[in-house]
Amino acid sequence: MRLRLRELWLDPKLLVIGLGGGLLAGLLGVGGGIIMVPLLVLWAGHGQRDAHAMSLGAIIPISIAGIATFGAAGQVHWWDALGLAAGSIVGARIGAGLLARIDERLLKIIFGVFLVGVAILVGVRA
Amino acid sequence: MSGPGLYAALVAFGVLAGVASGLLGVGGGTLIVPFLTLAVGLTQHGAEATSLLVILPTAIVGSLTLRRKGVGNLGLALRFGLVGAVGAVAGAKLALALPAPTLKIVFAAFVGVVGLKLAYDGWRSTPG
Q1: Domain end call among A76, A94, A116
Q2: Are residues A17 and A54 in the same domain?
Q3: Which domain holds residue A85?
Q4: Are A41 and A48 in contact (CB under 8 A)?
Q5: For residue A62, what are the contacts with CB-CB under 8 A and spacing of at least 6?
Q6: What is the pLDDT of residues A18-42, one digit of tens each?
Q7: From the list B25, B27, B61, which residue is nearest A37 (CB)?
Q8: Cβ atoms within 10 A of the Cβ of A21, count?
Q9: Do A87 and A59 lie in a common domain?
Q10: Three-state SS at A43
Q11: Domain map of chain B by residue range?
Q12: A60 and A82 share a domain?
């Protein structure tokens, strides 16, 4: 326990990654894993699986803080979130199960191009 | 859309976003926020707030699953996340202070960069 606390509180890299991931998550309403996982692996020297687990666990307090802040401003649509979350929990299991059976490279290219399209659409509507 | 139709669409889209995030580790908020603004008609701020509430239970379920499999250290991750929570409050306050069009542009830039990075990673790792 003491060792873990020292790892956490004395490693300035973890402080920076946590703050950065949290800032991005609160600003944009995303999990923050997209920035935390690569930084944990490439900068803080964690293994890929460990970094993924670390980021996923960190998203719990991060999202609670974000929800509380947005919630105080009356921005949270609870019922919409409930429907999406119900589907998302099921979907995440399906996705994890499919992982071994798909061509990940092709999927990345397709999904990446799709996201660029989404970005353009969102930008145009701004 | 309204009533049961909207709700069925929300659950169906939730499944889609969940599959994407399960496969690629991306696709939670990155997909949910644009869906909520473009298809459901929420404001950018409302969509971001709601997205975080979708992400929370998904992260809890995912973390518990990983813990059962013995991957990672949930206690350490949660303490690491407490640092992140400070950043999240600051980020959300910043978002609330920005006008919706500005926030949309920032969000679009973020999604665009994530998309380009994914496509590039996929392209680079393709043999030949």
Answers
A1: A76
A2: yes
A3: 77-126
A4: yes
A5: A21, A22, A25, A26, A31, A32, B81, B84, B85, B87, B88
A6: 999 999 999 999 988 889 988 999 9
A7: B25
A8: 31
A9: no
A10: coil
A11: 3-125
A12: no
Which residues of chain A lie closer than 8 angstroms to B34, CB-CB? Answer: 118, 121-122
Task: Estimate to the nearest angstrom the gap between the alpha carbon of B23 and the chain centroid.
Answer: 14
Q: What does the pLDDT look like over B12-35, one tens digit per residue?
A: 999 999 888 888 777 688 999 999
Does the beta carbon of A8 lie under 8 angstroms from any beta carbon of chain B?
yes
Residue B49 has pLDDT above 70, yes or no: yes
Q: In one letter, which amino acid is A50? A: D
**Min CA distance, A42 vs chain B (Å)?**
15
A43 Cα to chain B: minimum distance (Å): 15
- pLDDT for B65-112, tens place per residue? 888 988 888 998 999 999 999 999 999 999 999 999 999 999 999 999
What is the 3-state secondary structure of B35-56? HHHHHHCCCHHHHHHHHHHHHH
pLDDT at A74: 96
Same structural domain for residues A117 and A85?
Answer: yes
User: Is residue A67 located within the same domain as residue A87?
Assistant: no
Smallest Cβ distance to A34: which of B22, B74, B114? B114
| Same domain assignment for residues A85 and A114 | yes
Parts of chain A with a pLDDT under 70: 1-10
Q: What is the pLDDT of residue B85?
A: 97
A60 CB within 8 Å of a chain B CB: yes
The interface pTM score, or ipTM, of the predicted complex is: 0.91
Number of domains in chain A: 2
Q: Is B86 at the interface with chain A, CB within 8 A?
A: yes
Chain A partners of B64 at a C-beta cutoff of 8 Å?
none
